[in-house]
Write a structure and sequence with these properties.
The chain is of the alpha+beta class. It has 2 domains: 235 residues, P-loop containing nucleotide triphosphate hydrolases (Rossmann fold, 3-Layer(aba) Sandwich), CATH 3.40.50; 109 residues, OB fold (Dihydrolipoamide Acetyltransferase, E2P). The protein is built from 8 helices and 21 strands. It has a 6-stranded mixed sheet, sandwiched between helices. A 5-stranded antiparallel sheet has the order 2-1-4-5-6, with helices on one face. A 5-stranded antiparallel sheet has the order 14-13-12-15-21, with no helix packed on it. A hairpin with a 2-residue loop joins strand 13 and strand 14. It starts with a strand and ends with a strand. The model has no long low-confidence stretch (mean pLDDT 91). Bound molecules: adenosine-5'-diphosphate and magnesium ion. Adenosine-5'-diphosphate binds next to helix 1.
Length: 352
């Protein structure tokens, strides 16, 4: 069963003409880590606040464990939703120690039970030895782990994180992401986190929803979203891609540089389409058989790979330029370059 369901959730703030969240739907399964990804102002925090119960939706319904918590005239108060939240600025109590911060939400338990639970979560979060410190005596990463431990100690059904890595310096970020994923997975908790950084998504999310101006663009596992973005907005958000105009024919995709033949049968479509093929989804070949032939107009070394810009001439229209990420070991003798897109990694966009 889904632990969380949002159905057609909308939020209009009184001062604003456009909804902050517009007809947004999401399913979250038990144990999943879901990312809400989008630019600043796209409505991510508002969605979290509606799930937690700090904001009342203008329309739609929110269910937690199958039970409506918002919508259809129902409103369950935040403290009765069993949802933990880690705020962007951590919101630790400055005059309480780490221990007091973590045990704060355990008032319903007996003293020995609360002590055991707090000790467990302190070990799990790697905070041993810091119990008596105050927040100002902690590093950013430690504060974040205290905020996480405090949110997790009462064992909420669902934990929400607002931009959890935005205050962590980039050197530490990678480790933090792994640590947080480990802690969440070890406890079997379900988590939703908000971010504008695709690297957060790739490292820790099982599933991601991309949001633009309050609207859902696409939900899928990160690998799928990366290779098969629904539209050019999502494609661009995750990095460089090649856009190629095409017509679908029995041969394959007819493009200005020639036909991309595929073994899989394509849906018949009379409409012109736009393909998106990631730069690493082209293979450079030594021979021309079944390949496109272009000339390299630019070559950049980028460490683990090199970026080649390959121009394919077209007698009846503008030339096509394809960006290819190749291994630095690949030799393209002089200017000629034979390449083909990887079967199965050709994506048709749904842009209007
Ligand atoms: P994000 O977290 O993705 O940056 P927010 O959810 O904070 O975006 O904001 C989405 C939109 O709603 C923005 O245009 C913001 O200005 C507006 N907004 C957020 N909270 C309020 C509020 N309390 N009153 C009015 N407008 C708000
Ligand atoms: Mg926000």
């Amino acid at each position: 069963m889904n632990i969380l369901e949002l159905r057609n959730v909308t939020k209009r703030f009184p001062e604003s003409q456009v909804p902050a969240v517009d007809d947004f739907s999401l399913d979250v399964e038990h144990g999943e880590i879901v990312a809400l990804l989008g630019e600043s102002g796209c409505g991510k925090t508002t969605i979290l606040r509606m799930i937690a119960g700090f904001e009342v939706p203008s329309g739609g319904i929110i269910r937690i464990n199958g039970e409506a918590v918002s919508g259809s005239g129902i409103f369950i108060e935040p403290q009765n939703r069993k949802v933990g939240i880690v705020f962007q600025d951590y919101a630790l109590f400055p005059h309480k120690t780490v221990w007091e911060n973590i045990t704060f939400g355990l008032y319903r338990l007996s003293k020995p039970d609360a002590t055991n639970k707090a000790n467990d979560i302190i070990v799990l979060s790697g905070l041993q030895g810091l119990e008596q410190r105050y927040p100002h005596q902690l590093s950013g990463g430690q504060k974040q782990r205290v905020a996480l431990a405090r949110a997790m100690a009462p064992e909420p059904k669902l934990i929400l994180f607002d931009e959890p890595f935005s205050n962590i310096d980039s050197m530490r970020k990678h480790q933090m992401r792994e640590d947080i994923r480990d802690i969440i997975k070890k406890t079997g908790a379900t988590a939703i986190f908000v971010t504008h950084d695709t690297r957060d998504v790739m490292t820790i999310a099982d599933k991601v929803s991309v949001i633009r101006q309050g609207k859902l663009m696409q939900t899928d596992i990160p690998e799928k979203i990366y290779t098969y973005p629904a539209n050019s907005y999502v494609a661009d958000f995750f990095g460089k891609t090649n856009y190629i105009k095409a017509k679908i024919s029995p041969e394959g995709y007819e493009t200005p540089m020639g036909v991309i033949r595929t073994k899989t049968s394509l849906p018949a479509s009379l409409k012109d389409v736009v393909l998106s093929i990631r730069p690493e989804e082209f293979t450079i070949k030594d021979e021309s058989m079944g390949c496109f032939c272009g000339s390299i107009v630019k070559e950049r070394f980028l460490g683990e790979y090199k970026e080649l810009t390959c121009k394919v001439e077209n007698s009846s229209g503008p030339d096509t330029e394809i960006v290819i990420y190749a291994s630095p070991a690949v030799k393209c003798d002089g200017e000629k370059c034979y390449f083909k897109p990887n079967e199965g990694k050709i994506n048709v966009l749904n842009d209007e």
